[in-house]
Amino acid sequence: MSKSLQAIRGMNDILPEQTPLWRYFEGTVARLLDNYGYKQIRMPIVEFTELFKRSIGEVTDIVEKEMYTFEDRNGDSLTLRPEGTAACVRAVLEHGITGGGQVQKLWYIGPMFRHERPQKGRYRQFHQIGLEVFNLDGPDIDAELITMTWRLWGELDIRDAVKLELNSLGTSESRGRYREALVEYLSAHHDKLDEDSQRRLKTNPLRVLDTKNADTQAVLVDAPKMADYLDDESRAHFEGLKARLDAVGIPYVLNPKLVRGLDYYSKTVFEWVTDKLGAQGTVCAGGRYDGLVEQMGGKPTTGVGFAMGIERLVLMLETLEQIPEEISRQVDVYLCAFGEEAELAGLALAERVRDQLPNLRLQVNAGAGSFKSQFKKADKSGALYALILGDDEMAQQVVGFKPLRGQGEQQSIAWDALAAHLATCVVQG
């Protein structure tokens, strides 16, 4: 017998009972970004492999180990995007929308792909909402990004479960000086480093700061600190960011070991972390990448952005039981009709109600059925109310109105008064 078909490991179906929470989260973020003046951009999920080698860095874990790369029929090396910033930079360069110092405040949503070991909150196909701003170089825009996420946590009612960590990586020049000092220090303690950190010491030494190995963390206690190597410009930028966060009242923790996993970051880096999801504690992260556009062939253009993992934040809402009651109910009203004449009248009545109440979630029974079977489907739908159309109702041009989730007797409502009655009852319900 042939093997049964199933999804690829680490690439998951999002089932109908899960999608309402996803749509709630995505809609909340989209409305917030609209309110702050950000515009959506949509990029392909496949790009030339060279794009990610040039932007992320060839010696990063993503490029070395995790990318889904293949040759197409033309022999071109293509890659499923592992992150969104590089693709967004490619798009704005290709279409010239940041030329002449034009400010662009963009956001995107969609799947990303990395060949990692699947675990709770970490998948091979995962979904992100990302945001990128070009041609604004002050700490005010860095603060705006963080303030927006703080407002989002408030709207989702999860502020108490997240913590903001901040660091500054300085300019490429100051980071280069720090890198030399760090390599010198770590080389003197080479034998005490774990195997992965020994490898990173030769390829990407700043990532050693991000190690989870306890022995290596002990070595890092006395390692040189990035803050001691910051140039005056970066130090002033960082102080400006902290002053703005203090003014808004956003708490934060300085984390000198926060470096992020991508080569293109400079100056501000930040992460929102939680202890509610086990090992996968980062739910949103980003920073400034002032040299990336030039590195990819464009004119000097400042940039800053972040990305948040949808799977992790949806999981967090579930874990903390912060799921609005209305999204767990996908139907407000269920219409039961008995007999062909009632079905025809019910269809017309339902459409008139939808014209008057476009946001009402009204489901009309399909497949006919007995009184008992239709009411069973109405109850299973989760609707607050059932509408009933039978011979008696047709003769009087009324509809039976029956509460399904609480107290109240069935009553008869005239067809022309139904929309107004539903507007009152569903809002109250």
How is this fold's topology laid out?
Blueprint: H1 19-35, E1 39-40, E2 46-48, H2 49-55, H3 61-66, E3 68-71, E4 77-80, H4 85-95, E5 104-113, E6 125-134, H5 139-156, E7 163-168, H6 172-187, H7 195-203, H8 214-220, H9 232-248, E8 253-254, E9 266-273, E10 282-288, H10 292-295, E11 303-309, H11 310-319, H12 325-328, E12 333-337, H13 340-356, E13 362-364, H14 371-381, E14 385-389, H15 391-396, E15 398-403, E16 411-414, H16 418-428
Parallel strand pairs: 1-5, 7-8, 12-13, 12-14
Antiparallel strand pairs: 2-4, 3-4, 5-6, 6-11, 7-9, 9-10, 10-11, 14-15, 15-16
Helix pairs in contact: 1-5, 5-9
Helix vs. strand class = alpha+beta
Shape: elongated
- Euclidean distance between termini CA atoms: 52 Å
Low-confidence stretches: none
For the report, how would you describe the main beta sheet?
A: 8 strands, mixed
Q: How are the strands ordered across the major sheet? A: 1-5-6-11-10-9-7-8
- Give the total of beta strands: 16
Helical amount: 25-40%
